[in-house]
Amino acid sequence: MTAQHTAAAAGGTLDEQRQLVRKARVELLQRHRGGQEGGTEPPIRVMARIVEDLQRECAERGFDPAATRLEIVNRTIGDVNVRLITECEGEEGGSGDYRMLGDELGIALPGEDIGGYTASGTCYRWLRGQMLDAERQLLAVGYDPRIYDIHGVGNPVLRDWLAADMREWGLEATAQQVALGLGATDCIDNVLRGLAHLAQRHGEPVGAMLFPAPGFNIPELQGASYGYRLHPVQTRAEDDFKLTDTLLARHLEEHPDVTAIYLTVTNNPTTFAYSPAELSAFQQVVERFVAQGRRLHVIADLAYVGTGVPEEDRARMRALTSRPKTAGAMIYANSFSKTHTLTGERFGWVVFGDAAFARAMGSSWTNSVGSLPGEWQLRFMAYHRLFRQNPHLLEKIRELYRLRRSRLRRQLERFDAEHGLFERIYLDDDATIYNWSKLRPGEDCFSVLEKTGLAGIPGSTFGYSDDYVRFSVGILPVETE
Hints:
CATH class of the largest domain: Alpha Beta
Strand order of the largest sheet: 4-10-9-8-7-5-6
Helix content: 40-55%
Radius of gyration: 24 Å
CATH architecture of the largest domain: 3-Layer(aba) Sandwich
CATH topology of the largest domain: Aspartate Aminotransferase, domain 2
Number of strands: 15
């Protein structure tokens, strides 16, 4: 049955059903605005709850699901759900058939239907065979993933592979400088715990943690739990929302208790990436303060390095890893979550710029999970082999992101022409899975949702102004009408 026929059965054409959903959307948001004074719920949860309430109310009223799907679009969540991919650009089964990604990544079950494409399950089975081979390889070098690992940093074979990846970016790392974690967020938590523990062992204060805003805010919550004073730094739109070397130097001079800097190399939410020249200037400031004896560490979050143009990402990383005098201060947090669309797998790792410092941080891993899951490590190894053997998959993922970002910009421009919502719809640095835009005076996330059906996240979520909004292209395709 077509969407048009379904709508008629439910009471009216699809267009008429969409009008009913729009009316319900306005009614619920007006009720929400009337009751939101004094609320303490985080903005991201508020938006997620509103979307759920809207969808539930539309279902209770018996509206056509197709109409609801078109008129209430959750763009708060950043994760890509390959099971919801519908885009097929060009010939079915060709390189532009993005529905195949779930099958090509071994996520789709054999015979599973994804947007009309039936998965073969070939990679799904291949990954399991690779896990078997990986376990034999580990046993051959004396590492049994099925027993307790007293060091808790993961098996040496996989760590060596990841160190080799880092060497391609210019850092001469070894397996001893790599520690595995259940995603980059888990790794950052371990790092902050470890830094705080080392400070306390030496009778020193934990210090403050510098956060450029707007930025990913989970490390702020982690830092606060380990006793860091949180030190947010507001960046400027004219600097593309980046922490400039001048701004960094001023804050380090004025706040001598800053001992850690959190830096997202390609930014969530703004979608802007640091240039090699900007990163070199940043490193020069760090080098100057380290030379003065300052206890200082930079946690470089690389979550979106890999979503952009490969040559540009390599240049960024070489600029970030090319100053030996700052090696001991550098900590690189990596993940397969966004760059490889494997959020649920929780594949993450951290690389320390200095081997001696890596050893000192080891207790933070030992005292957290104690021992990393054996089956998880085997799957991590299987995926690493998959991407090494099939680099075209990463380009296909980047192309999907690029397609969705361009479609979303066009959609926002169309809504802006109709409703006058945005002061500026920012272009991105051809990276990430987001759009960051500035609203006109009088508009906010709620008015945008009321008028367009798009649910975004307000800038206050990222320590910035609610004059800005972030939309994700991750979990849902962008509808073209």
